[in-house]
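Re-run with default settings, no changes from the original entry. Doing this only to confirm the output is reproducible before filing.
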Amino acid sequence: MILTAATTVLYPLAIQFKRGGWWSILKPLALFTAVLDVAANYTEVAIVFGKPKPGKVTITRRLKAMVHDLDELPSRRQFAGMVLIFLDACEPDGKH
């Protein structure tokens, strides 16, 4: 779960490039984090939650789908919802 942990740590910092100005220097970090996100989704997260559905390329897109998927276990849906709340709190515009 190294890729997933790295994505979790880097995402809140990397996403700040959306603020503009001096924060724009974080764009390379955001690109690197996006690559980690996709890699983790198809490797580590796939082992735990299964193969991603079509169009769910990143962990964050998968989480949004998990919250609304009634076929998922309630505990997984609740966990996905909590992670999305954290991600929204990190976003400069408040919506991930």
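The mean pLDDT is 88. DSSP finds five helices and no strands in the chain.
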